Structure formats: structure tokens, C-alpha cells
Known about the structure:
Blueprint: H1 2-19, H2 24-37, H3 42-56, H4 64-69, H5 89-92
Helix pairs in contact: 1-2, 1-3, 2-3
Amino acid sequence: MLRDRAARARLNLGKFYWFKRNNPEAAKLMANACRNLAPESEAAKEAEGLLAEIQANPTPPKSIVDRLLGVYPRPRTSADPKPTVVGEELDVLGFGKGAPKSATEPERR
């Protein structure tokens, strides 16, 4: 019974991430956790349905908030390119590219 409740909680989190936060990776993670916690439960069957829906269409459905305010930005994947350097004006602001200081050595003055 407790495993069923824990599995249902993971499924609810997965649905939240899928329908409200446009985060399919987190939704898949929670649905898989639901299946692993209680594979024979009703929540696990629903989680398999959610996983099948995510696999069929990886773009999350738009919510009312998405329609009004725009789509919540999806997290970057490891395949996305890294941000590029804007310019050298950051050195003037104190963000220079000097050698990092060692955390174990005392500061020399």
C-alpha cells in the first residue's frame, strides 16, 4: 500500500513536469521511478501510458498559461551548443581570465 502511494506520487510529479513545466526529461524520470517502485500497481500502468505519449510526441502540450504568456523555456540538452563569449568588455568589469587561485595554498602578498 505504501509503495502504491509512493508510485502514485512519482506519477503525479511526472504529469506535473509534462503538462505544466514542459520538461519531458523530468517527466520520463518520474514515470520510470513510478514503474520501478511498484511495477504491478495501477499507477505503473498509467506511467507506461505517459511514457508512450512522451515517446510518440516529445513536444509537451500547451497549457493555458503557455497560450497566454508564451511557452516555458525547455532545459538545454547536452547536444545543444554551449553559449559563446560576448566580448572582452567583461575584463574591464573585473571578470578577468587570470589563473585560478589554489584553495589549499595561503594567499601570497
